[in-house]
Amino acid sequence: MLLAAFEPASKELAIFYIIAVACFVVAAFAGTAVGRRAGGSVGLVAIGLAFFVFPTMWNEIDAAF
Predict the structure, then answer these.
(1) What DSSP line would sit under 9-58, residue for residue?
(2) pLDDT in tens, 3-56
């Protein structure tokens, strides 16, 4: 079932968390190169938060319906 994609201890969940941590690390050490682009470090933090929260939101939607 597609809605059960993010089971605890699944590979998909680990991949999402690794991407989120990578976004946070890049945002923390972003220099001027990232700052010139649209969003900059704040954009990377937003993307990291999205990757961190998405599996939890997906599981809550699965449980609700």
Answers:
(1) T-HHHHHHHHHHHHHHHHHHT--HHHHTSSSHHHHHHHHHHHHHHHHHHH
(2) 566 677 778 888 889 999 999 998 888 766 655 666 678 888 889 999 999 988
**48/45 Cα distance (integer angstroms):** 5
Q: What is the dihedral of CA 29, 37, 52, 3, to 10 degrees?
A: -150
SS3 category, 48: helix
Residue whose C-alpha is closest to residue 10's, from 47, 63, 46, 59: 59
Provide the domain limits for residue 13: 9-64
Q: Please state the domain count of the chain.
A: 1
Q: Say what the pTM is.
A: 0.74
